[in-house]
Write a structure and sequence with these properties.
By secondary structure, the protein is an alpha/beta fold. It has two domains: about 170 residues, Formyl transferase, N-terminal domain (Rossmann fold); about 45 residues, no CATH class. It is about 35% helix and about 25% strand. The protein contains seven helices and ten strands. The strands form three sheets. Strands 2-1-3-4-6-7 form a six-stranded mixed beta sheet. A two-stranded parallel ribbon has the order 5-8. A hairpin with a 5-residue loop joins β9 and β10. α4 runs antiparallel to α7.
Amino acid sequence: MKEKILFCGYRDWSLEIFRSFSGLCITSDKEFLLAKSPKDLQDSLSSNEIQTILFIGWSWIIEDDIIDNYNCICLHPSPLPKYRGGSPVQHQILNDEEESAVTLFVMDDKVDHGPILWQQFFNLDGSLDKIFKCISSLGTVGLLDILSRYKRTGDFGWGEEQDHSKATYYKRRNPEESEIRLQDFQECSAKEIYNKIRALQNPYPNAFIRCKDGRKLYLTEACYV
């Protein structure tokens, strides 16, 4: 019987990983299933014998009984233990970080806390689209690597514990935080405004200016020289 691996993700960049990964990892002993929502996840678990679940670009809370009873692997686009929590890419850009990382780790009962299986750094220059393409490319390579090692060892126990003393946490951003105020132009550098605009490119709530008529002017692209 084929081993069934469930891939959970719905974002464009995560679905690109699924397409690339499942296409490159064609084997006679594995079958890859896709869940794009919590309902898909529950339906897949109730109707299939699954051991391993890959959470790649997943926003919903995962129940403890799932984490306790399956091999749950998560991709987090940050150099864990830094930037645990929500909106990691946006917070890194807003903080003017020069590089980030694709991190694959074993999930436990705490947020972005489990042992690291694979981590690869990349440059944060350029548009969000460029950054997501990089995450997709590295994520595919990382998944192929850890599943290859899993096949040899039979488990994911070779992960390296994070240095929790270096952990930083961030909350998920909300749409109203995308506003750029007149005060920001007076207090922020051009680089800071540029970073805010590119950090909030599609598919995220775009940066905007609230005009005197109450309407919002959205800023979807900027050039910094």
